[in-house]
């Protein structure tokens, strides 16, 4: 039979072990967070300036991200939801959001936990719930496009279409059997996108998917956050790539309107 002092000593020992385990876990999580922040791409000065409201576009921080709205006229449907690339700050996509907002659309950029869409697949819910009677399309860049497509696959009844910027739909994001319209945009100078995976993933998209290739565009210039590691130098400016991207999205949306 154990004496009370023995029991107390054993309890004290386990408390110390649990305390150290807790400290190690906290230190590990803190180190992981600091590392992720250190490798996250930051918005350019142009992107940061794009977050400011002006006479053309009103920018508001909302639940789940940022909202861009045309300031000088009625909003055109569909609203646009955008999922950022992995480890890229959402503000980095403000130039693209502004281009689309100036065309009349309400644009939402999702702010992902740890800047990774894998942790925020359903972020779109908060935007759709704000305007439940209005039409929406969703899209994303790189990793963001994969998870935008996964959201679309599970909520096809809430959306009109999906667009991909240097991205693809994996098997879990397959939307080939839905009524969704799909737009695929890539750049000829993109050295980050895995072309083999991108090509094999085309089977997960509808046969009538629209493909647009931006001559001279690379991976990072779909946003505005500087040169991405492993990418190829672009042959066009970031401004031109964003303008061509926005124009392709607007042309696709115009086709959606005709098909309704």
UniProtKB/TrEMBL annotation:
The chain crosses the membrane at residues 17-36. Keywords: Hydrolase, Membrane, Transmembrane, Transmembrane helix. Coiled coil: none annotated. Residues 80-242 form the Alpha/beta hydrolase fold-5 domain. The keyword Heme does not apply. InterPro entries: AB_hydrolase_5, AB_hydrolase_fold. The keyword Transmembrane applies. One of its GO terms (molecular function) is hydrolase activity. This is Alpha/beta hydrolase. It comes from Paenibacillus sambharensis. The lineage of its organism: Bacteria, Bacillati, Bacillota, Bacilli, Bacillales.
């Amino acid at each position: 039979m154990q004496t009370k002092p023995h029991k107390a000593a054993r309890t004290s020992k386990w408390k110390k072990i649990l305390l150290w385990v807790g400290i190690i876990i906290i230190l590990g999580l803190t180190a992981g967070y600091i590392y992720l922040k250190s490798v996250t791409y930051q918005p350019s000065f142009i992107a940061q300036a794009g977050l400011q409201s002006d006479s053309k576009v009103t920018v508001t921080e909302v639940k789940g991200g940022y909202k861009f709205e045309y300031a000088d006229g009625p909003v055109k449907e569909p609203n646009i939801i955008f999922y950022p690339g992995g480890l890229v700050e959402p503000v980095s996509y403000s130039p693209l959001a502004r281009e689309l907002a100036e065309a009349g659309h309400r644009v939402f950029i999702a702010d992902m936990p740890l800047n990774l869409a894998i942790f925020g697949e359903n972020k779109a819910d908060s935007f759709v719930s704000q305007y439940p009677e209005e039409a929406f399309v969703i899209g994303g860049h790189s990793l963001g496009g994969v998870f935008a497509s996964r959201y679309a696959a599970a909520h096809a009844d809430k959306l009109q279409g999906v667009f991909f910027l240097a991205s693809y739909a994996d098997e879990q994001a397959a939307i080939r059997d839905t009524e969704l319209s799909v737009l695929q945009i890539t750049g000829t100078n993109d050295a980050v996108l895995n072309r083999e995976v991108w090509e094999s993933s085309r089977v997960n998209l509808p046969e009538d998917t629209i493909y647009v290739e931006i001559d001279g565009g690379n991976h990072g210039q779909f946003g505005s956050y500087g040169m991405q590691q492993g990418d190829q130098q672009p042959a066009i400016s970031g401004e031109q790539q964003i303008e061509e991207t926005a124009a392709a999205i607007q042309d696709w949306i115009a086709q959606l309107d005709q098909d309704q």
